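Try it yourself: sequence plus guanosine-5'-triphosphate, in.
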Amino acid sequence: MPQNGSTPARKHGPRAVALVGPQGAGKTTLAEALLAAAGNAARRGTDPRDRAMGTDARLAHCTMDGDPFALLDCPGSIEFAHEVEAALAVADLAVVVCDPTPARAIALGPLFRMIEQHGLPSLVFINKLDTLGDGHVRDTLAALQEQSRRPLVLRQVPIREGETITGYVDLVSERAYRYRRGEASELVRMPETVTAREQEARSQLAETLADHDDALMEKFLEDAIATPEDLYRAMHNDLAQGGVDAVLLGVAERGGGVRRLWKALRHDTPDLAESAARRGIATEGDGLIAQVFKTVHTGHGGKLSYARIWRGGLRDGTMLDGSRLGGISKFPGGEAEKVAEASAGEVVGLGRLDGIGTGRTIGPDKDARQLPFPATPAPVHALAITTDDRKDDMRLNAALARLQEEDTALIVQHDAQLGQLVIEGQGEIHLQAAIARLAKAHGVKVSATRPRTGYRETIRHQVRQHARLKRQTGGHGQFADVVLEIEPRERGEGFSFESRIVGGVVPKRFIPAVEEAAEEALKKGPFGQIVVDVAVRLMDGTFHSVDSSDMAFATATRMAMQEGLAKASPVVLEPIHEVSMLVPNSFTAAAQRLLSERRGQILGYSEREGWPGWDEVKALVPEAEIFGMITELRSMTLGLGTYTHRFDHLAEAQGAAAQKAVAG
Ligand SMILES: Nc1nc2c(ncn2[C@@H]2O[C@H](COP(=O)(O)OP(=O)(O)OP(=O)(O)O)[C@@H](O)[C@H]2O)c(=O)[nH]1
Ligand SMILES: [Mg+2]
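Structure, out:
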C-alpha cells in the first residue's frame, strides 16, 4: 500500500540529503535555516568558514519531528564538483538550490547531468525569492526546465504584495501561507489576486504527475478532481524514481519556505532501502557495508573518514578491513560529538582507519565488493610548487600524500626531466585552496609558479664532426679521437647509435663509452633543452695504447656532439596538445576564438555527446598556451566551459615561441 497524505504513518530511519547548486545560491544559508527550524541553535556567523565560499562538503545532523537526517552542505564552485559528486554518491536525495534569475539557470546544466547520471532523486529549491523583483517564477521555471531532463513541477506559487513576495500558496493542499522571519509561516486566506495563477499551476502539476501515474491519469480522463492525497502519492513515487523534480520556493536568509521544504524532505526523501536498491546494494543480511566518501586529517584528532552505512551497524573499536576503528563522530547541528555506535542509514565520521581511502567500501570482510565511486576528474590547471623553507623538503612528500588523501581531485607529478614538482587540479581556486591547506593543516608552506613547458630541440641537417682530445697532464696523458655522423631522425623515433668502426681504429672496449657520452650530450642542446630524435654514428677515430681511456673517449665524444649539434641547424620543438573544449553552444564561437588566440589550430566542432545544447570544439594547442586557459574560458562562459587535453606531438617552434623557450 502506498503511503497517503502529508503525514507519513511510519517512522523513517536516518536519511541523507545533499544540498547542491551554483556558487553563492544560498546552500549554507539554507542548511543553517534547516538546522534552526529543526531546533538547533543558530550557528551562522560564529564560524568564518560559513560566510566564505564553500570548498568542501560539510556534514550536519538533526532530527525533524522525530525523523533523523544528515545534511551535506556542498560547495558550489565548479572547481569543487568532485566534492559534490562524492556526496551525491551516498545521498538519498539532492536539493538543488538556485536563485530565481532565469539567465543564471544555464549554470545548472552540468549539475542536473551529474544528478541524472547518479539516478539520484532530487528537488529544486528556488532561493532568494526576495530578489525576484517584478520577475516571474514561471520564467525561472521555464529556464530551469531547459537545463533539466526531468520534468519540473512547481509545488508552490508566490504571493506578492507589490514587488515584495510575502508568502506562497501550496499547490497540493491549496493553502496560502505568509512568511514570518525565522518562524513557521502563518496560514492565511488565499488572496484573490493569486487564484487564477494557482489554478493554472495546479493543473500543470497534476498533468505532469499524471504522465507518470496511471491512477492519476485515469482520474484525469474521467474529469475527476485530483485530491491532495492523489497528488502526494504520485509526487512521492515520481520523485523517488527520479521521474520528476518538485520545485519549492523560499528565502533561506529569512527562513522563508524552509518548513515547507522540511515537509517535502520528510515526506519524499527515499529511505535507505530505496537508495540501496537504486545503487544495487543488497540490504538483506546483517554484515556491515559502508562507503567512505570523504577523508579529512584533523590534526590532533587524526584521520577522519566520512562514511555512509548502507547495511549493518558498527561500534567503536571494531576491526574494519584490518584497522581498529578509533572513534565514531556525529555532527548534531554541525558540531562534532563522539558516539559509541552507529546504525544503518547513518552518515558518520570514522576515526583512524589507516590505509582506507576515499571511495572504499568497508566491512568486516576485507574483500567485500567495492561499490562504484566517482572517478577523479581530469585536471584543467597546473602549478609548479617549491617549499618556502628548504628544510621542509623532506616533509613535503608526506604532507602532499596526506593532502591527496583528503582531496581526490589533486594530482601530484614529480617531473624529473624539468626538475619540478607539479600539482594539478580543477582550477586556480582549487589549487590555491590546496596550497593553503598544505600550510595550515599539514605544516608545509610552498610557493607556486607557472610550470615550465616541456620544450625539446632537434636538428634539421646531417653533419660529420671530428673531435680530438690530447692532453698531457703530469705523468700520463689523455688521448682520444672520434669522427661522428649526427643525423636527424623522424619525430618520436628517439636516439640511436651505431658503430661503423672497421679494423679496430677505435678498440671495441671504448665504444660503449662513446655511445653513453653521445646520449648524455643530448640532455642539453644548443638551446639548453633536451635534444630528441637524433642518430649518432661513430665513423672513424684513432687511439693511443697508453693514454686512451673510456674517459678520454667520452670527453672527445662530448666535444664532437656539442660542436656538431650546433652546426646541424638545431631547432626548438614545442609540445602540442590535443584539446577538447566543452561549452554550451552559445559559446562555441567564443571558444574557437579563445583557442585561436592561444595559437590553437581548430580541428572542428561537433555536438557534445549526450549533452543537448552543448558543443565540443577540438584543437591542437601548444602546451605553453594552456596555462591559465581554464580561468579565461570560465570567465567567458559563466563558469560552464571546460576542457580535457593530452599531449599529441612535438612541433617546430617558430618566432616568438622559440625565443620564449630559449629564454626559459
Ligand atoms: N537576498 C537573499 N540573499 C541570500 C538568501 N540566502 C542566502 N543569501 C545570501 O547569499 C550569499 C551566499 O550564501 P551562502 O549560503 O554562503 O551560499 P552557498 O550556496 O553556500 O555558497 P557556496 O558554498 O560558496 O557555493 C550570502 O551573502 C547570503 O547571505 C536569500 O534568501 N535572499
Ligand atoms: Mg556554502
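One thing you can check immediately is this: The longest strand covers residues 570-584.
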